[in-house]
Amino acid sequence: MDGLSSAQPWLLPCILSGVFIVVALLSWLISEMMLRPSWYSHPEFGHYNRHNFSSPEERLAATLPPTILGDAIFTWRISETISGVGNPLSDVNLPFTNVEIPLLRPGMPGNTTLRGWLVKGEDKQQQQQQQQQDQDAAPHFFGDMCVVAVHGGGRDRRQWLRHMPVFHSVGCSVLTIDCEEHGLSDGRGRRVGWATYEQFDALSAAHYARQTLGYRRVVMLGTSMGGAGVLMAAGYGLWDRFPSRGERPGWLTPLEKSRLEARDCIDAVIAENPPASREALASHIVHKAFADALGRVFGGVLAALLWPPVWATLSARLGAFSRGEPVDAVTHIKGKPLLLIHGTRDALIPWQQAETIFAVANEPKTLWIVEGATHTATYNADPQAWARHVHALLAQVGSRE
């Protein structure tokens, strides 16, 4: 009896220690699944290293695991016979050039170069001939404009293949990139970005389009995490968040000023289904996963208990404690047209998050909620309406001096 009594003071600490260890392991495991989900792949790790690829296109094609291929079949598909996982020439009959883009600020250690495709817009004579044949053809021409297209997490430059004719037909060039740790850009398959490096990738590509390629106007286009990235690039420049002294440029050091002015190469932003914040997105994913697996009541209670340590673990692994969020970045985009697009059937990022961003954004701004559209598939729901909304934004940019 005395032995049992003497052991009791140790019982509670042991139980608490065990609970702490279990919660910590669960939090790390859940964060690992969010950083490197099953559909994430990169040709620098795994079985891809054992192949000798004869061309960049062949190497890029090898980065499609079955889950992404399924997404491509239903979302990227261009026609009954064209899958949308090839290249601009094979899939949409548009000549392209492979490009390499130096990173202004690497988001992940050791990365220096992004890779992508440049598809130049058709010339004005071709467009005039097209207009004579098609009365519904867009009346504008944007030969001095380049759209920088940034894909979502776990995808690559091919996510924008089906959209390219929308821009090419009005003379607008398209520069579509693989973000760091994706596709053929630098990386070792470490993780998806969660809006921590897409911002710097997007800004590096915009700077390249303006300074190296010589385009007079640059429009950012991003979907999902790429949508968050283009908002943050246009709002923060090369900063992790808007500097506290940024509203008083005279107080900034030359380095601080140059980091902020890097965003000046961006003239407009199109963001499709962007998350309002990392926390809002991660919370939705965790609560939905537990509710789907264990039921709304029990799963909801368990998710609520686990959420604080899961979020703390994810933030620590992302280094996101001191970083800004898309919903804050958009408040610092001023005098530049903004188009937000979201689908009502988006199961990953609820469309209400676009409303949250839109509510705090500055004019000129447009919000288009696409009835019935799923995640990253607003174009698929209504290609003609998608083209009209995008052309309207390009016309806004083209009319500004």
Automatic annotation (TrEMBL):
Single GO molecular function: hydrolase activity
Pfam short name (any one): Abhydrolase_6
Presence of keyword Membrane: yes
The protein's name: Alpha/Beta hydrolase protein
Domain of life: Eukaryota
Transmembrane segments: 6-30, 218-239
Organism expressing this protein natively: Tribonema minus
Span of domain AB hydrolase-1: 147-387
Entry-linked SUPFAM superfamilies: alpha/beta-Hydrolases
Keywords of this entry: Hydrolase, Membrane, Transmembrane, Transmembrane helix
Cleavable signal peptide: none
